[in-house]
# Entry
Amino acid sequence: MEQHNTTYAVQLYIYDLSRGMARQLSPIMLGKQLDGIWHTSIVVYGEEFFFGGVGISSCAPGGTMLGPPDSVVELGNTEVNEEIFMDYLSSLGETSYRGDRYRLFEHNCNTFTNEVAQFLTGQKIPSYITDLPSEVLSTPFGQVLRPILDSIHIAPPGGNVINGHNNHS
# Structure
């Protein structure tokens, strides 16, 4: 039996939802420097995959209303083929990454990309991204804002929802 060792590049797209405002305002508001309010997605097989308030979505790379990413991290390569990956995403979309499971601080786009990155490459996403919620919540202002921020569901427009419950057009 012939073996095919095809690999696929895996990238992390990083967007600053504050468009630079976090860098300017965080020292005043939080008493500590934050470089951004990060939204991340995984790019693999020529598609960008992300999680938000509507569940798991995909689009052409850079195809959401956020435009091109602020930075791109090469996470490595995967031998997982697209069919297996889409089955994996479908399973996640029906369980832990349904839209109603989205929580800004505990279960968000960065939680999703961290889990998917580990599935595809065995690598985690940078800790400055995954540590951001605890950094914000460790401040008095973060604790005051938490009830308001908990009600926010981020779902960048421009993606196609791919989880099991919403993919009938």
Notes: Strands lie at 8-16, 38-44, 47-52, 55-59, 71-78, 160-161. The chain has a mean pLDDT of 88.
